[in-house]
Write a structure and sequence with these properties.
- The protein is of the alpha+beta class and 183 residues long.
- The chain has a single domain, classed as Protein Transport Mog1p, Chain A.
- 21% of the residues lie in helices and 38% in strands.
- The protein has a 7-stranded antiparallel β-sheet, sandwiched between helices.
- The chain is globular, with a radius of gyration of 16 Å.
Length: 183
C-alpha cells in the first residue's frame, strides 16, 4: 500500500510541478533537528529538484527529468519517533535492520542490499523483484529522521520497468549524498 501511494504521489507531482534552479552541488533542503542539518548532493544531469513541503518535521521534494520517459525520484524526510535516538543507519545492529527490512517486505517481494555513500552513510537499497522492477526505494536514517528516495519509472508505458542503468544513475546520485550539521 505504501508503494502504491508513493507511485500515485509521484504521478500527481509530475503533472503539477514547476522547474527549479539547477547547480553543480545542489542544496536540497534544511531540516530543523535539535539545531539543523543540510542534505546536499549533486543532481543527475537533466534533472531538477522541485520542493513540495518543508517544515520542522517533514520535507518532500520531487526530482524530475526534462525527458518524461526518464525515472522520477521522490525524496521524503520525516521524523520517526521509534528512531528518535538513532544517529544513523550505520548504528543499528542486525536485529534492528531486520525489523526495518520486514516493513519493506510486508506488501512487496523485494531484494534488499546495502551500500555506503562517499561520506560513509549506510543506505538500504530495496528493489521490487516481482514482475520486473517498478520501484527502487533507498532508505537511511539521520538524527532520528527516516530519509527515503523512491525511484519510479517515468512515462505512461504500461508494464514498463526500471532498467539497471536507471537504477545505477540513482545510486550514483545518492553516492554523493551528504548530511551536513548546521552550527
Amino acid at each position: 500500500m505504501k508503494r502504491i501511494i508513493a507511485v500515485m504521489l509521484c504521478l500527481a507531482l509530475a503533472l503539477t510541478c514547476a522547474a527549479a534552479a539547477e547547480a553543480e552541488k545542489t542544496h536540497i533542503g534544511t531540516i530543523s533537528v535539535k539545531g539543523a542539518f543540510d542534505l546536499k548532493c549533486s543532481v543527475p544531469d537533466g534533472y531538477t529538484i522541485v520542493p513540495e513541503t518543508a517544515d520542522d518535521g517533514t520535507y518532500l521534494a520531487t526530482l524530475l527529468s526534462e525527458d518524461e520517459s526518464k525515472p522520477m525520484m521522490v525524496l521524503s524526510i520525516a521524523m520517526d519517533e521509534l528512531l528518535a535516538e538513532v544517529e544513523c543507519l550505520n548504528d543499528l545492529d542486525a536485529d534492528a535492520l531486520a525489523q526495518i527490512e520486514a516493513t519493506f517486505r510486508e506488501e512487496d517481494i523485494v531484494d534488499i542490499s546495502y551500500m555506503e555513500t562517499a561520506h560513509g552513510t549506510k543506505l538500504m537499497v530495496v528493489k521490487e523483484t516481482q514482475d520486473g522492477t517498478d520501484f527502487v526505494d533507498i532508505y537511511t536514517i539521520y538524527q532520528g529522521y527516516a530519509v527515503e528516495f523512491v525511484l519510479v519509472k517515468g512515462g505512461a508505458a504500461e508494464g514498463s520497468t526500471l532498467t539497471e542503468q536507471e537504477i545505477q544513475t540513482a545510486i550514483q546520485f545518492l553516492s554523493d549524498l551528504d548530511f551536513v550539521p548546521v552550527e
